[in-house]
Design brief:
alpha/beta, six-stranded mixed β-sheet, binds adenosine-5'-diphosphate, binds magnesium ion
């Protein structure tokens, strides 16, 4: 029995129970509960303002919660900085606006966190940065500054930078929403390849084809609540809720 309970727990990389979040009077997350398995790719859909960003930002403590519990890789997220730091080490985050450090080269951007947080030697951090730059296809840009790169290239740097910490979870918040159409594909391709490596990923996206193809499960947020959650096939082909049908009719 104990053994079973332990096995059950360990398959969950993320568990959230009863999350509530307010910005002043505004109730932004309403009793959100969700569990994500190790290696799972979860795509988060929903209209603008439905709480998607706030939700994924609570998972690594960028946003605090008013009530509920969050556990990442068996570590409970509390208000203590030590717990927040421990979870941030394991969760890479990629934002809509790439958020690269403008005064550092591409390679320096990638080396910074492993050197400072993981205390890697310069040589180790540099080797890691170079191998990641090759993986995301921008090795030639290593010594340039972010402003010299296209949006698609900058976002690939941001992905490499998050991966440099060897996180167990990757959180993406609309990673292609700020990109010109011709650059969306190159970034989605990198994210797709990453999904195949078995890392746990949460991706807020409006790219329905991507969600269909890559997600193990999709979840629809609306007004701070989870409306529906299921396999892409079920959610897209056989939505159960009127709200899901309405959302899909507008976006597909
Ligand atoms: P989404 O990512 O789904 O578009 P958000 O999580 O960004 O939604 O926002 C949910 C709601 O919370 C929106 O009404 C938004 O205006 C509000 N909100 C988000 N961040 C803040 C903040 N820092 N202060 C006050 N209100 C916020
Ligand atoms: Mg958002």
């Amino acid at each position: 029995m104990n053994q079973l309970a332990k096995t059950d727990q360990s398959q969950w990389m993320i568990t959230c129970e009863g999350l509530n979040k307010y910005f002043g009077e505004l109730h932004v997350l309403k009793d959100v509960s969700i569990k994500v398995k190790q290696g799972e790719v979860l795509c988060i859909l929903g209209p603008s303002g439905s709480g998607k960003s706030t939700f994924i930002r609570t998972l690594n403590g960028i946003e605090s919660i008013n009530s509920g519990t969050i556990t990442v890789d068996q570590k409970k997220l509390t208000h203590k900085q030590k717990d927040i730091d421990a979870i941030r080490k394991e969760t890479g985050m990629v934002f809509q606006q790439f958020n690269l450090f403008p005064h550092m080269t591409i390679k320096q951007n990638i080396m910074l966190s492993p050197a400072v947080v993981r205390k890697w030697s310069k040589v180790k951090a540099e080797q890691k940065a170079e191998s990641l730059l090759k993986r995301v296809g921008i090795y030639e840009q290593a010594n340039k500054f972010p402003s010299q790169l296209s949006g698609g290239q900058q976002q690939r740097v941001a992905i490499a930078r998050a991966l440099a910490m060897e996180p167990k979870v990757m959180l993406f918040d609309e990673p292609t929403s700020a990109l010109d159409p011709e650059m969306i594909k190159e970034v989605l391709t990198v994210i797709k390849e990453l999904a195949q490596t078995g890392i746990t990923m949460l991706v807020v996206t409006h790219e329905m084809n991507f969600a269909r193809e890559v997600a193990d499960r999709v979840v629809l947020f609306d007004e701070g609540c989870i409306v529906e959650m299921g396999t892409p096939e079920n959610l897209f082909e056989r939505p159960q809720h009127e709200r899901t049908k309405l959302f899909l009719s507008k976006i597909l």
